[in-house]
Hints:
Elements: H1 4-11, H2 15-22, E1 27-29, H3 34-39, E2 46-48, E3 58-63, E4 66-73, E5 76-82, H4 90-104, E6 107-109, E7 112-114, E8 122-125, E9 128-131
Parallel strand pairs: 1-8
Antiparallel strand pairs: 1-5, 2-3, 3-4, 4-5, 6-7, 8-9
Amino acid sequence: MCDCDFAVFYNQLSGTDKTDILHGAYVKVLDRGALYSKLIKTPCATASCSSHRSSKLQYRCVEEGYNLLYGFEPGYTWFQIERFSIGFPGCCCHMFTYMVYVCRGVNVGPTGVSAHTEAHPLVIYNKKRAGGN
């Protein structure tokens, strides 16, 4: 997994949530930004942008085949593991997966697709699932 802090967080989740995350789920962690604050300090954190809303700078961590995108909104950290990076040569593939999102309404992750989009996120509170919205 991309970063030690993220790996610790990820390993505490249920198997279903882990599967959804690797399928590209958009995840809201109701943590007041605690995970965001940890992740922005990691060596792989690179300032980035995306179509997702974020009150603070967004970051990407591309490492070991994972493309972790994350940001902050008041009250929560959000993240998504995307199938392809926006950098070359993945940018063309990233645009294809974005078109899958536009046409089918699903996110594309490294191991599949997820119906958990920004409009219908996977919500996690205190490392446990909080509900569908």
